[in-house]
Write a structure and sequence with these properties.
Layout (H helix, E strand, L loop, with lengths): L5 H21 L12 H19 L4 H21 L8 H25 L1
Helix pairs in contact: 1-2, 2-3, 2-4, 3-4
């Protein structure tokens, strides 16, 4: 009964994660809660790992997911630097984003291997 909707259902978590990431990454500085130092790096890592995992579940091709998310990581930091959000772009954040993408890809590869 759900077969006609299956393609949409597997893509929904990825779409929701993208939307959540946009809110997190582009909220003006005045709306960002204070947190202990380093918390933002953990958030970047987990956020981009979640994007990679949900992208894999949505059946986005590996290369397209890797390239697309890496471009998103760099672009988001550039936009934070130039948009009037009161935020700054950070190369370390972009590097942590890419590490999160790698972690998410490794997790999905491990789960795929475990299923076999």
């Amino acid at each position: 009964m759900l077969d006609p909707y299956r393609a949409h259902l597997v893509r929904a978590p990825f779409a929701l994660t993208i939307a959540a990431s946009a809110v997190i990454l582009f909220t003006p500085a005045s709306g960002v809660p204070t947190a202990p130092p380093g918390t933002d790096k953990i958030l970047h890592l987990v956020l981009f790992a979640a994007l990679a995992i949900t992208g894999h579940v949505a059946q986005v091709r590996f290369a397209a997911l890797l390239i697309g998310l890496s471009c998103y990581a760099v672009t988001s930091e550039l936009l934070q630097a130039v948009l009037p959000l009161g935020r700054t772009g950070d190369l370390v954040d972009a590097a942590v984003d890419v590490a999160g993408i790698g972690a998410g890809m490794l997790i999905t590869a491990g789960l795929r291997a475990h299923r076999r």
